[in-house]
## 1
Amino acid sequence: MANAEERVARVSEVRRRLAREGPPWARDHERDFETVSVPERHGDQLRDLLVCEGAGKVVEIGLAYAASALAIGEALLTVGAPSPRHVVIDPFQESEYANVGWKLLCSAGLDSIARLVPGPSSIALPRLLGEGFVADAAFVDGSHRFHEVFVDLYFLRKIVRPGGLVVIDDDWWPSVHTAVRYYERNTGWQALPDAFPGEPVGVRPQGRQRARCKAYRLPDPPFEPSFQDFRAF
């Protein structure tokens, strides 16, 4: 038990230091870490959500500076499932981020449960599905192009177990929100309005405040909608 507590404390310390001091390296973009990364409060809420869910296996799309990945890792260690797994997909971790996010995960000791897939999610997710991988939850913060988000969610609804969770970052972007809206209106995804409580963090592109992260529960049992019942989104 003490060893498990020490591992959780190690991850928590790396998370707090990252939030307090920023990453040891960042891209030469103004406020890049603050813009790209999930705010610490949302990270805490994501962690708590996954702990309440008892999640043991999580798929994450997008690593960047590892703010959300550390929160997910903290949750997985807190739950203490027999064989926790965290699959992180990011084709730009080396080329764009100099592996800073992965190095932070390693410094927290999470490389023992995490696996970095350095390829596009449109290729990595079908492979995971073909391997028979089943996740309890997914966190989506990859490409914000509509068609790529739509494809990510298409495969995640087959990878995440019935009744599992899909959490979306940057839901305030119209391209992301519109892709998610299809699955909400046509495949039975249920929004969890209390998953990320509190005041909205930041301002969406149109200038109005809106919650940044949004969580959805997949239907159990799953179903395929009839094309005749299609609902415009």
## 2
Amino acid sequence: MSPVVATMSISLDGIGAGVNQTEERPFGEVPENALHRWMFETPDENRAEMEAIVAAGAFIMGRNMFGPVRGEWDRDWRGWWGPNPPYHRPVFVLTHYPRASIEMDGGTTFHFVTDGIHAALDRARDAAGELPIHVAGGPSTTNAYLAAGLIDELALQISPSVVGGGLRLLEGVGPLELEQISGRSTSLVTHV
């Protein structure tokens, strides 16, 4: 069976996103460079980890990771990434509001799942074949999968910043027994 890998960039204090997300501020009140400088300023030294993040056969994400639209889908929001998102595979977006699938350039198709985390994982398993399934976030979605015991591997990119507040990874998850299988530091991030 395909492994389920959760990947997330977090601050030293465990923040993976801020509150009060808007279209202009995808990470809410957390500056984007607090969590993702390593991707944009030093991509060459983090190439292997960046490639691993998008090397899944299918992805799962929460609605907030997909965009700032709340409630019913009242406009044609197509994600933060422009016409060619980096996934190039099926992406299953958890939501409470039905929406037709959206096909994007490069092979990414966003499917909207209204019947919970288990249903999204079943659909991702069907789509991924033997490739891994990545839970791409945000923190609430990742925490739900961790609390349910559905994550096989947790891949963190820990930025050397303290944010002070926001949505925290591992909040409400309960005790976990984890084993570190790798770790590598570069100039702007530690990969664990």
## 3
Amino acid sequence: MTTIGIIGAGHIGSQVARAAIGAGYDVVIANSRGPETLADLVAELGPNARAATATDAATAADVAVVTVPFKAYASIPVEPLAGKIVIDTNNYYWERDGRVPALDEGRDTVSGMLQKHLPTSRVAKGFNHIRSGEITTDGAPAGSSERRALATASDFDDAAQFVADLYDQIGFDTVNVGPLSESWRIERDQPAYVVPQTRDELVANLAKAERQVAAA
């Protein structure tokens, strides 16, 4: 059975954990405050979940989910994630994270920066443009009319495919945006951001996206 290691147990992390366990995965989840603080969540999640440190969650993971505030991305352990698919849910909120010139000037993307931090991992964008509560409520069976779609992006085909398969298992269609350099199209303030949309609507919203560059 595939183990998903979730680094970050906030709103998105806990909801991804619930969805993943519902789809039949084992989950190892970590936060910044220590495994003992996750006792209630793990009890809710059931026997296929356990709490760990971030390093232990990364080590145990077959696939990892990074869902910490963007400003903390450099704290993600590198070596335990070597060779693994890493799903990045992060968004850049400069009000929280501080100004990052590479993002403000359109020279990089949130997930592109995580990929640089994890050079031997295969990073894919996922779960960043849906409100956390909707991860476990908005899914629908494949083929349903008006089935909601979510996007992914990666420089690695197998990583993007894993996200697409996971989306499908929990009730969502997928649009592959392309490489991480294009993942800005589903970042904050873009037309596709946190909007319920079908696959066709998501494709249209991605096409409407405009790269926003902060004034010098």
## 4
Amino acid sequence: MSADTVEQLLLCALSELTERYVTHSQPVPAGLLEALDGDSRRGARELARRIRGRQERNRSEGQRLRHLLKFEVELWEQGLTHVAGVDEAGMAPLAGPVVAAAAVLPKGYRLKGLDDSKKILDAEKREELAVAIKRDAVAWAVGRAEVEEIDRINIYHAGLLAMRRAVEGLGLKPDFVLVDARKIPECPCPQRGIIKGDTLSMSIAAASILAKTTRDRMMAELDTRYPGYGLAAHKGYPTPQHVQALKEKGVLPIHRRSFAPVREALGLGPASMPSAVQTELFAAIPTATTTKS
């Protein structure tokens, strides 16, 4: 923080003060806000309001991040240092693998803006968070289940397989695993499934970011291999554009043949024993437009 006195700061251009205390969120010297409140310039008073708004947002974000660490803190206090969060991306798409990620965060870790990947609509922001998570994590890994595995064992079990592979790829054995909504078969350590865990646990949220960004990059690469299907845009989800491309261009090797819209495009009947999970996933297909998992 600058050692400038409040009097010296008031001589600075308001644009410079805005850059310091709003854009870059530098600590605000004692007395500056009060001095800006009493300044005759309307812009100075507006700057004081903006700084206070930024401070309030920072406090709210701090509280949100503390709440996100609730499950991790309980485990850390029990002496369980390496807590892994696990989540997947790509259960509902008609094409491409299902991808899972596992992340072990440092004790007390907080990353501003980290949240469930479905809540972060800006792809660039998700990538920035993924870079930070990979840089800061004690360990992280991704696992995947291929289209052939999805068709053979069904999407639900394929998602669990991808999760197990992510945990096994960490390079260390976690003391405990927090999983979004389910439990991983043959998991090598104790675990807990948390309903809506990607919105309640920072470790699971971190895993959701890694899984989502990894899968999105995979689908962008597949788009260059199979142009004309819009894979980079819809990521394989059953959007009207994707379903129309299936009808017009045909089914690709990366399409999941156990999924109803793909079977329909192939002229096949319904799968002999559709899983309850797949039935639920495709209940709303005619109006599906989202590209998030």
